Amino acid sequence: MKRVETIAEPDVVLIGGGIMSATLGVLLHELDPTLKIQIVEALAEVARESSNPWNNAGTGHAALCELNYTKERPDGSVDISKALEINEAFELSKQFWAYLVQRGLLPDPADFITAVPHMSFVHGKADQAFLRRRYETMKSHHFFAEMEYAEDRTTIRKWAPLLLDGRAAAEPLAATRAEGGTDVNFGALTQSLVDHLASRDVVKIATSHQVRDIRRKRDGRWELTVRNLKKNINRSITAPFVFVGAGGASLPLLQKSKIPEGKGFGGFPVSGQFLVCDNPEIVKRHHAKVYGKAAVGAPPMSVPHLDTRMIDGKNTLLFGPFAGFSPKFLKSGSLFDLPGSVRLSNLVPMLAVGKDNLDLTRYLIEQVMQSPEDRLEALREFFPAAELADWHLLTAGQRVQIIKQDADKGGVLQFGTEIVAAADGSIAALLGASPGASTAVDVMLDIIGKCFSKRLPGWKAKLREMVPSYGKSLQNDVDLYRSVRAKADKVLGL
Fold first, then answer.
1. Number of domains in the chain
2. Closest CA to 289 of 246, 326, 318, 254
3. Which of 276, 299, 301, 307 is nearest to 391 (CA)?
4. What is the pTM assigned to this prediction?
5. Does any domain span residue 345?
6. N or C, which end of the chain has less CB nearby within 10 Å?
């Protein structure tokens, strides 16, 4: 990577050195190679917060295994609309990555994406019946036509033997399996995207630089006060467009912009921990991402899963996450992040969310108070023969869930991601968490549509070259879906 630099007046400023900024930067550079782009990252390296492979689940979220994306309706039927949306978004990401690999702009795809089956696993008659209904509903759509279902132990053991080791013989079980699932190292992917950008003269990367203030100038441009953390000096950067993709730090920066669209938003931080297997004999017996059902009151990001991961070329096995609480908005953040984000405009929504989410509060208290034996008991729901000596505890990343104003309740806690953009498209911020990274291309295409609408007509041909299904519906066009997926999977080695 070239030496750290800043441009005084770039065309685009991307705040945050994670997968979101990297994706938007590459998209914009491909659309207009003359754009001057400035990336600002507070840490000494990019991809060290939420995009770091040890700080996220690494699941290529395609709704193949995540039960929280397929809600059960009151009549017992299963709503798969969210699953369809997420699956299509991930296919867009794969198309874009395949384009970059074919152009030689990304290295060997095996460095960042690996084929790993995605499974859902439940026990008990009620959950068994739910999973069967979910499978039958999903199987009818072409996105999930390859999904398999099993209740017999022989099949489940073949798919994931650890699930059956030491399990009581009379317990009703059910599992689904999608062989086309993936594990994604978003840290490696982000680094490769940023390395590509850094090789371009019109792109500058400033690490160890922190945005301290954002204010609107009279000419409509944005002036950023940027602190060089190594030299302890401030710099000023002025640009007509700013993207705030700083993970948990996006909310405070959005508040500093004072755009009316950002008023009323609050944030609720949730930290995570994983158990990591230290026994290679156990690791090599498991090759799947196995997701279960979340505990009552748990946030969706806390859905338990026993996960095969490929990190830095090495297979490993993680179980979790175990939720915790910290007022920090970033793993490297400040204890004053949460209290410092409170404003008159979001005080009512935050108080309303606190009142209406007592079950979440109880859940977090229980999680924080857990002992090693409690965590082992949770692991044994998936791997009954697990022994504590084979695992160690890892602290993962921080996630900031969105709190929004609501006319009826005063405020609601929202899970997922949300774009907040100024009416004139001059600034946009990304708030929220999962499925996040997996849908980066879809989210960034949405930002381009909102913030570069005047240039969009001239960019559509290039966008379709990069993402062949851009502007079309994979949900409604089975032939298009099969065609673009087959091509992308072949290029990515899946």
1. 1
2. 318
3. 276
4. 0.92
5. yes
6. N
